[in-house]
Write a structure and sequence with these properties.
Layout: E1 2-8, H1 14-30, E2 34-44, E3 47-56, E4 60-68, H2 71-94, E5 102-103, E6 106-107, E7 115-116, E8 119-120
Length: 121
């Protein structure tokens, strides 16, 4: 898993860069399917923009962007957005069941046919 940090139109101290890599490592530990994370930090007019692009297995591509006057706040909110999207996608995949096994959202127990002397029950 690789983490890439790109900084545009400003200078960022090493403390912020290490903060970003720590946040992204925590994100990748929560979601082990992540293959690449690209964080873009930018300065536009009077606000700082943090954009996170996550690529994972099975063609999963997630983007989250936030702008704020405080760079750390923008990074935190963008990370929360990306985490929310990943969690929603993971839950969607885990909750997937065939239509035949569902009825109004509840799982139907299937009846197993048992053989006995007179035929099939």
């Amino acid at each position: 898993m690789s983490i890439e940090v790109t900084i545009r139109h400003m200078k960022v101290p090493k403390a912020i860069q290490s903060y970003v890599t720590d946040k992204m490592e925590a994100l990748s530990e929560s979601f082990p399917r992540i293959e690449h994370i690209h964080v873009i930090l930018d300065h536009e007019k009077r606000s700082n923009v943090a954009e996170i692009v996550v690529k994972a297995r099975n063609h999963i591509h997630i983007e989250a962007e936030e702008s704020s006057e405080n760079l750390r706040a923008a990074i935190d909110v963008a990370t929360e957005k990306a985490e929310r999207q990943l969690r929603k996608l993971r839950d969607k995949v885990q909750d997937h069941r065939p239509r035949a096994a569902r009825k109004n959202g509840d799982l139907i127990e299937t009846v197993v046919e048992e053989e006995f002397e007179g035929g099939v029950l």
